[in-house]
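> example.struct
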């Protein structure tokens, strides 16, 4: 019998519902998890950036149109300080205290920080299961994450997104020995 891949990463086109899926799986599991998720920042209905929120309350600005940074993704200046403080901090805390780790998302903005990339590697290599999202684009780091033998990539689309909640919930319960 082959060992289960302990890291489940959801991928799909932008706006398809990756974060919503992760949130719904978390609700269905009702098991303490650590880690982080990202959210759009809106101003008058217009997206102006993204926040990064730790599952245990810490938050910051991941990227913003008005943020001055040498790291840019499209029109957004990436705030590596908040990414590392909130994102890396949440990963490291989850490695110590949580049953599983949520990483939403591993994408272009997050790749501006080598410190963040190292934290992703620590989480994926640890014995703690990971549930997360990974951007669906070619990039050396993202490609290496998706190619890991301990990573199972789940593609979300409009045809399967409603049925994936119980599938991912059951896979996580299996990984957690429940």
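> example.seq
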């Amino acid at each position: 019998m082959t060992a289960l891949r302990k890291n489940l990463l959801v991928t799909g086109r932008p706006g398809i519902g990756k974060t919503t899926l992760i949130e719904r799986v978390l609700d269905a599991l009702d098991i303490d998890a650590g880690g982080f998720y990202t959210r759009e920042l809106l101003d008058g209905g217009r997206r102006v950036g993204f926040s990064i929120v730790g599952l245990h309350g810490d938050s910051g600005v991941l990227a913003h149109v008005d943020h001055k940074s040498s790291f840019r993704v499209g029109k957004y200046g990436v705030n590596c300080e908040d990414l590392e403080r909130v994102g890396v901090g949440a990963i490291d805390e989850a490695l110590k205290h949580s049953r599983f780790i949520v990483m939403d998302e591993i994408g272009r903005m997050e790749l501006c920080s080598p410190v963040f990339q190292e934290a992703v590697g620590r989480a994926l290599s640890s014995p703690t299961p990971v549930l997360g999202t990974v951007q669906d684009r070619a990039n050396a780091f993202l490609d290496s994450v998706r190619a890991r033998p301990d990573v199972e990539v789940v593609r979300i689309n409009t045809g399967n997104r409603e049925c994936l909640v119980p599938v991912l919930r059951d896979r996580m319960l299996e990984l957690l020995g429940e």
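> remarks
The chain has five helices and nine strands.
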